[in-house]
Specification:
Layout lengths: L1 H22 L27 E7 L14 E11 L5 E11 L11 E5 L11 H7 L5 H9 L3 E5 L15 H17 L10 E7 L1 H16 L4 E8 L5 H8 L6 H13 L11 H10 L7 H10 L16 H9 L11 E6 L7 H13 L4 E6 L4 H20 L9
Parallel strand pairs: 4-5, 4-6, 6-7, 7-8, 8-9
Antiparallel strand pairs: 1-2, 2-3, 3-5
Helix pairs in contact: 4-5
Length: 407
């Protein structure tokens, strides 16, 4: 069983790497965000969604010659946002708009897209990888653009801009997506404005972002013309996810989340819980990207380890950590727009049961939820299987078609 699980880990990582070589190989020519002055900007107390600076960029699916993908106008932006606790911050991102005229009804729709796990290093910021042809979700973004939609992609807090990325801190990620949509609507020349229909989409970490953006929208960004959300592989309950990962092949995701929570909530003081082995892992992981030699090495090196192997006291058992994780647990607010939620039934990374609980919780609140499961899909296949139906769902919402859900 150990060999089989390790083989599955290797297969999944190989699939991710293969995807990157299809949409881009790791061969960069431009300065990474940590060496690019564009990403460093003065602190701003402007209203969330205000563009601090912008520049013309390139969207490419070509990792070798990096020819720009035709028919797409790409603009990198630094925009103002807030942390989950309401403190002003700057975040980087990208606005992608087809150059062809929108031929659908009404105004061109905008999708604010939550990306999946990249890691926590600035070099894995989507605004950078999309310009290099190395983004593993590039083909999904291209599919949305081919429908004529504008797509706004946030790097999220600390992924590109200075500071540690607050990986899987849902309240941070949800605000980042909503403010990314605001910034896109305010970008000169985008053809977007406050009346543009908006959809939210994301898978895995992006599913957390999409879920939180949906729950926060009525109070945080009520002016957005939100039409619907598509969220897949959703890590809704980080305590349940961490317990599912502990001792398994993908426990590294839990370690990355501990970095994210420590960055968002410094009082959690992650280093104080670590033993020597844990401190060594922390030093090696603070700038790691999933699709890199270091990232793959970290995943393979920690596979089947227990959290207890790296700590003197397990932080998951402490009231402080439990409180912050529960504070970022989805399911406390009824979505006010239709939601398409999907999940692979044999997902080996994000437990199916906690996603089903979120669906049941939203349904009990009276939300309009369309729940789709894929019986033979694990995490990666769930992403692939659900992408088309997720976009079809948003397309119908943009067209004004009614949906009653299947609660």
């Amino acid at each position: 069983m150990f060999v089989t699980a390790r083989a599955r880990l290797g297969a999944l990582l190989a699939a991710v790497v293969a995807a990157c070589f299809i949409v881009g190989a790791p061969a960069a020519t431009a300065a990474t965000p940590d060496k690019d002055p564009f990403y460093t900007s003065p602190s701003s107390t402007a209203a969330p969604g205000t563009i601090v600076r912008s520049r013309t960029a390139k969207f490419t699916l070509d990792p070798f010659f990096k020819f720009a993908t035709p028919g797409i106008r790409s603009t990198q932006v630094i925009y103002s946002s807030q942390t989950g606790q309401g403190q002003p911050i700057n975040i980087s991102g990208t606005v992608l708009v087809p150059t062809a005229r929108w031929r659908g009804q009404g105004q061109r729709p905008l999708v604010t897209y939550g990306v999946g796990t990249r890691g926590v290093g600035d070099a894995c910021a989507p605004s950078y990888t999309m310009s290099q042809g190395t983004d593993y979700e590039g083909l999904f973004l291209y599919a949305a653009l081919q429908r004529g939609w504008a797509v706004a992609v946030s790097d999220m807090r600390g992924l590109g801009t200075p500071g540690q990325h607050t990986y899987e801190v849902g309240r941070d990620q949800g605000k980042a997506l909503l403010d990314m949509a605001r910034a896109a609507e305010r970008l000169p020349g985008s053809g977007l404005d406050g009346a543009s229909p908006v959809g939210i989409m994301g898978y895995s970490q992006g599913g957390t972002s999409a879920g939180w953006a949906t729950e926060l929208a009525p109070s945080y960004a009520p002016e957005l013309n939100l039409k619907g959300t598509a969220a897949g592989g959703v890590p809704a309950d980080l305590l349940a996810v961490a317990k599912g990962l502990d001792g398994g092949p993908f426990v590294a995701f839990a370690f990355l989340a501990s970095l994210g929570y420590d960055a968002a909530y410094p009082e959690l003081n992650l280093p104080s819980y670590l033993n020597a082995q844990g401190k060594d892992l922390l030093a090696k992981s603070e700038n790691v990207c999933l699709v890199s030699v270091d990232g793959i090495g970290t995943f393979l090196g920690t596979a089947f380890k227990k959290i207890d192997d790296y700590v003197t006291t397990n932080p998951l058992n402490t009231p402080q950590w439990q409180a912050r994780l529960n504070e970022n647990k989805l399911g406390s607010v009824k979505p006010t727009v239709p939601v398409f939620q999907y999940h692979g039934q044999i997902d080996e990374i994000i437990p199916f049961s906690q996603a089903e609980t979120l669906r049941n919780t939203w349904c009990a609140m009276g939300a309009n939820v369309t729940w789709k499961t894929y019986p033979l899909a694990e995490h990666l296949l769930g992403m692939i299987a659900g992408a088309g139906p997720a976009m079809d769902f948003l397309s119908d919402r943009f067209a004004g078609k009614p949906v009653s859900g299947n609660c």
